[in-house]
Amino acid sequence: MTPQRVELINTGSELLLGNVRDAHLEWFGKELIGIGLRISRQTTVPDGSDILSALREAFKRCDVILVTGGLGPTTDDITRELASESLCLPLIKDQEVLRRIQDYCHVRGISFQPRMERQAMVPSGARVLPNEFGTAPGLYVAPTVVTSLTIPHLFLLPGPPRELRPMATNYVIPILKGLAKSGAKDVCNIYRIVGMGESMLESKLGLELSKRTGLEVGYCARPNEVDLRLIGTPSLLDEIKPIVLQAVGDNLLSDAGESMEEVVVRLLQKYGETIATAESCTGGHIADLMTNVPGASSVFREGFVTYSNASKIRILEVPSAVITQHGAVSEEVVRAMAEGACRLSGADYSIATSGIAGPYGGSDEKPVGTVWIALCSAEERTETWKETFRGDRITFKQMVAQSALDRLRRLLIARPA
In the CATH scheme, what is the code of domain 187-254? Predict the structure, then answer.
């Protein structure tokens, strides 16, 4: 029988204080849909007794509970103890786990602290899930009945993603696969679309999609970008795909959930071409995005961050007279920046940006949010365009980067096959 309700309980006061970003829901959501399971609820609780309350509430309605965090050696790591209390199972020191912790410390030159022995305490009957990247093992408790309370599949996992993800991949997912029913499973297709708002997208596709029985449709909007999420059987999604592609045309960024920078890197690799960046208002954000993509070293030639006028003149050889006459945020300056980057780096393409991120520095002629962007090819055929993006500085930089990369993407996909 396939579990119908899977819940994720994230523990840690740092999550609720905003000091640490919760990355577990996104990761588990993608992993579980691939085996026919979905998270039905997520709860985030601080360190302390709220963990016990969250567990007891979830026991009543869940088939599977995934708990993250609170398995470390310090006094605020009490998930193990509270889970043991909720299960009415005593904690027993596992000598094999203790030996692994001591070996882990010895190999890495870490001083073993007596408080680390807490991590070797295991609820009676629980299965230990080895941690190859830390000292806190995971724990799995199979379904049981305790004083008339039915306990579902319970997984206790470490909080750091570098420890949790390998453990979940190697041990948790195989267990959950064994619980899922055989036969056709729903899958999730994500179409990432740029240059279309979600209302426009729904006006083009909503009626057609609503006719399909067994299809779940969702939209997730970001600045100048929308994810169209379709969940259904593989055969149903295959049937719908041509309809989606025809409706969105070259506004389709990816039908595999790829980011703009991933698509651009892949296209440049396809044609064996390279790129350089010359950034002012984006402060290296475009270069950062591109170099986050595995394999970017084959296409990314060089990045110039020329935030000041002096650096534009000294590094990119922008004529000082052009800046004096037109100002740094101008078509003429951004063109010179792009052409200088292409010439100096030897790249096939360059992107340049110069704008006013705000909240200060604007004028009636050039208000906050104004940006000039240039795309130059090695033959120095340079295209320039002006945009206005209102919002905070981070959002401004994101939208400028997306606009620049999308123009390059459209240029590359327009090539004859």
Answer: 3.30.70.2860
| 37 pLDDT above the threshold of 60 | yes
pLDDT of residue 187: 85
The rounded Cα 341 to chain-centroid distance in angstroms is: 30
Residue 1 has pLDDT above 50, yes or no: no
pLDDT category of residue 63 using cuts at 50, 70 and 90: very high
- Domain borders along the chain are 6-179, 187-254, 260-413
Strand order in the sheet with 64-68: 39-45, 6-11, 64-68, 153-157, 138-141, 127-129
Which CATH number is 260-413's, of 3.90.950.20, 3.30.1950.10, 1.10.10.10, 3.40.50.720?
3.90.950.20
Q: Which of 370, 376, 377, 378 is nearest to 354 (CA)?
A: 370
| CATH classification code of 6-179 | 3.40.980.10
Query: Could you check whether 6-179 and 187-254 share the same CATH topology?
Result: no
The mean per-residue pLDDT over the stretch 282-292 comes to 98
Among the residues of 255-392, which ranges form H helices? Answer: 260-271, 285-291, 309-316, 320-326, 331-345
Contact 205, 240 (CB under 8 A): no
Sign of the Cα pseudo-torsion (308, 310, 315, 321, in order): positive
pLDDT score for 206: 86
H-helix or E-strand spanning residue 371: strand 370-377
